[in-house]
Amino acid sequence: MTEPTSSMTRLQLVTEISRQCKATVADSLSNLQLYYRDFLYSWPWGFVCPSATIAIVASTATSDLPDDFAEIVEWPSFPSVDGNGPIVEQVDLKRILDRRAYSSETGPPRRFALEAKTFVPATGQRYTIRWDPTPNANKTLLYRYRIIQPLLANDTDYPAGGPPHNLTLIEGALAQWESSTGNVAGVHHNLHDIAWAKSLAFEKRLRTGITLGTLIATPPLTTYSGFQVGAVTEV
Fold first, then answer.
1. What is the dihedral of CA 92, 93, 96, 99, to 10 degrees?
2. 198-227 per-position pLDDT tens digit
3. pLDDT, tens digit, for every residue of 14-48?
4. Are 135 and 54 in contact (CB under 8 A)?
């Protein structure tokens, strides 16, 4: 499938950033990569938080998480006809370890904790889930997690999220450049805040299915989570 022409590659983003701040291509790329990393973790964006399944195995207290795992976004749940299956609650690891020291209970897990595996520099940090009670049957649970999204390695790479976030990435990189020059309250910081708020509004529309026919933007601007955004009114 061909990417829409409104999508911007890494090279196109860097070219625009360099044009606006008159910085070198290398410096502009560095600012883009620094901001891109922060942007990906600034919100549980749907494009970096996929739905997934995880298998629990009878008599096995742990399950390995994917290599690209960053954090749990939605707790694991048991599948059900109505989509409201029992949810497995996340707790502190010590609580589970303490319980397992005094109890050998088995059954459908009601609690889980994240546990870091031994760190291996060649592969990076990996995680596992520890279940409580220890599963007594093989099951497949549903959950969502944030992936560790790769940086933009090539000029032809497209950023995650697509065209709706192009301006946010550009202004974020320019705000990063402003900070590097000591201008921490520059125009691009303000423009970034507005662009980021628009990215968030787009993300929420994707999740709720709200169409443009049901919303209108009305002045004046209002503050939402520290960002200036247009007020939204139902019609």
1. -100
2. 999 999 888 777 655 544 444 333 333 333
3. 999 999 999 999 999 999 999 999 999 999 999 99
4. no
- Which helix (H) or strand (E) segment holds residue 57: the answer is none
Q: 30-64: b or e for each residue (b if 16 or more CB lie within 10 Å)?
A: bbbbbbbeebbeeeebebbbeebebebeeeebbbe
Residue 210: Cβ within 10 Å count? 14
User: Locate tokens 């560095």: which residue?
Assistant: 30
Paired with 120 in beta bridges are 124
Which residue, 152, 216, 221, is CA-closest to 193?
221
Strands 227-234 and 215-224: antiparallel
Cis before 109? omega within 30: no
Question: What type of residue sits at position 177?
Answer: W
Instruction: For residues 153 and 177, give the distance between their C-alpha atoms in angstroms, rounded to a whole number.
Output: 20
Q: How many residues does the chain have?
A: 235
205's torsion region: left (phi>0), alpha (psi -120 to 50) or beta? alpha
Token pair 């279940």: residue: 131
Using CA atoms, how far apart are residues 130 and 47, in angstroms rounded to an integer?
A: 27
3-state secondary structure of 118: coil
